[in-house]
Amino acid sequence: MYLKLAVFTVFIFLLIPQAGSVLAEPSKTLMMQNSLRAAGFNPGPSDGLWGPQTELALSKALKTVGVTQSPTRADGLTTEIFTHLTSAFNLYHETMDLQKTRLQETMSFEDARHLISRTGLGAHPTEIQALVGLTRSAAISREISKLDVDNTQLPPPDLFSYEYPIYWARNDIEEGDQQNFRVARDKEMADLRLWWVREMLATQQPAGERLVLFWHNHFVTAYSGLNENVHVLAKQHWALRKYGHTNFRVLTRAMIHDAAMLDYLDNNSSRKGNPNENLARELMELFVLGEGNYAEKTIKEVARALTGYSVNKLRNDEFEFNVWDHDRGTKTIFDWKIYRDDLIQSVENFVESKGEPIVLSGHSMGGASVMQVAAKRPDLVSGIVLVEPVLISKMSLNILKIAKKFPITKSIPFIKEMTSRSDSTLKRRVEFPNKEMILKSYRGRGAFATWEDGFLEDYVDGGTREFKNKIKLTCDPKWEAATFGSWKHNAMDSIKNISCPITLLQGEIGSTTRSIGVKLLKERDSLGAFKVIKKSSHFLPMEFPEIIQEEIIKIKSRIKPSS
Prior knowledge:
Blueprint: E1 10-13, H1 26-38, H2 52-64, H3 79-104, H4 109-119, H5 125-131, H6 136-144, H7 178-202, H8 206-218, H9 230-243, H10 248-256, H11 259-264, H12 278-288, H13 296-305, E2 309-312, E3 318-321, H14 337-354, E4 358-363, H15 365-376, E5 381-387, H16 394-405, H17 413-426, E6 431-432, H18 435-442, H19 453-462, E7 464-467, E8 470-473, H20 477-484, E9 502-507, H21 515-524, E10 529-533, H22 540-543, H23 545-554
Parallel strand pairs: 4-5, 5-9, 9-10
Antiparallel strand pairs: 1-4, 2-3, 6-8, 7-8
Helix pairs in contact: 1-3, 2-3, 2-14, 4-5, 9-10, 12-13, 14-15, 17-20, 18-19
């Protein structure tokens, strides 16, 4: 069985039991995996192998029926375990059957009134009656279909179609006419409000109108802070109608280009060397991530990225990207530490289910992330198996940073090696008609030339998804290229804080693990296994998966039992 590894992905392996333990039989493990899957608990691949995902799924299933002590692989699959598993299975299906039954029940008048009131803007008798007699499932689908409100029932005010409004020239108006100007703009604002209220009353899509109201409160701007520019508020309102029912990423991007948002949060004045942080801060704190999920440094980097985003008031308040005001320097919004933090959250779940620290193994960027986890949270990690981790000296990192500013340096062999992956990734095809075409395109070519067929098939299965009758890569090449190009992290800084047993496996050809990194790791664990695998490359796990598996098993003998 090929190890379920993927390029630049972190892999987690639970501790293998001591030699001589009674291991779970593959046939019984397969039965258990199938039972867990049927009960709604994801055990990973149904392969008869007891891995971390299987163990975590079993733990969750048993906790559902009140069993807090989960069996380990060494316990084998006893009759008692299967009894509890059957209970979990039955409980799940009773719940699912109840849910299915409830969804197929027909809607009463009260049911319809409740649904419309919660998803819309009040409940009109005709709207209620239209849902009476439908199944709950059909009624929900009907309400979801009403989210698109790009077409309105009532004609919007003229200000939606204004071209070249005179708001920008307000300061040129005689002082005596300033009050008249404000009165005229206030009337326009009142007209806009009145139209929207009437649209809410007249609409055949109340769920969509409620959604527009929700986004209006989320991406907040204020008339008072826009120099009485009603025109830009009208444009923003229409953008919420157009994109509010689509992907959140698409909507957020539209708001970053929105004239009202850019003006209200002072991004018009944000320039290279003097970035305004208002939009960046609201974006991180209120619109996207939420307080506490980013660093102050992230705000500053995002603000730099948004310099030059402005509005052309002479061209109907259109979005304008001013290249001369834009900071074109390198920004690191999130470095590789974000993968470390994500991994910590996952590992915490495994450790909780197992009751003791676990062995972590990672390849390439995953290896760098594993090192950082072992350094930051030694309580979670009993040993690490590093496979071709990206370990680069500080000098090399500084050279790479210089190379980004001076593209001519890309011809230098070291820089060419480190930057070529990012450049080639951007050219990668994203969509295919089917998985067979992906395998045909990848097999024997480029980075995949040395991969075993079984591993390549696992990689394609795990790294793609169906999208509009096509097969699309799960990881966007732009995101992958950005990951390759993020050099401000330095995993070697974490080495000094690693205290667990270490195994390091390197490829013989084209290794990303520099000698200085190997030296520092040996200083942390003089008894560690440090090996260069013959005839292997950076993609060692895909070429020799059995070696990785053997080394993970071997490291168990060097791990002290937890107290």
